[in-house]
Predict the 3D structure of the following.
Amino acid sequence: MVTAPKQRWAVGITGASGSIYAIRLIEMLLSAGHAVHLVITDAGWRVLKEELGWNAAKRQQALEAVFGEALAGARLIYHPNADIGASIASGSFKLQGMIIMPCSMGTLASIAHGISDNLMTRAADVMLKEGRKLLLVPRETPLHAIHLENMLSLSKLGVAIVPAMPAFYYGPQTIADMVDFLVGKVLDQLQIDHNLYRRWGDEQHGPTTGDHHRTD
């Protein structure tokens, strides 16, 4: 018997550094029983190749190598970015929301200015017009005024901006720990339970020895 997914989320991967974040997010969404509609830009595929060693020339096979069971069970649905007629391009297709992680400044700028000339930006535009959750994880530094103005414009529209900024109060020991922290912060925004990192003030574990957490 096939169990219906709890929720449906769209996940976008662009050409900004940090594709490992998105892969971990997808793993967590799938493990929580949600369905994922995935879109990857051409630049995003290049980053997957450069950072994670994926075979970007054989995209379907690359996805099957990592998410074969989810693809076979239609819990992960991959949409080519050029497929402007895909289900997630329509507001009549029900989604809880969309996460673009990482989000390049080019994609962010397109969304901020209503430019929807591919599936990634069209799906994001649909989230805005339908009043659904849209969360962007920009990964760029330093930021100039145009970057900041575009993020402010989107924030005023209710878009959640979650920059890929690490924290150290919970005592990360590995890259995986730092990845889990950011993915956990995204899941918090989506109101999806997880235990990816130790929260500040967690009495069960207590603060890390010698750790002085600042909130200013």
Q: What stands out?
A: The two ends are 51 Å apart (CA to CA). Residues 84 and 117 are 8 Å apart (CA to CA).
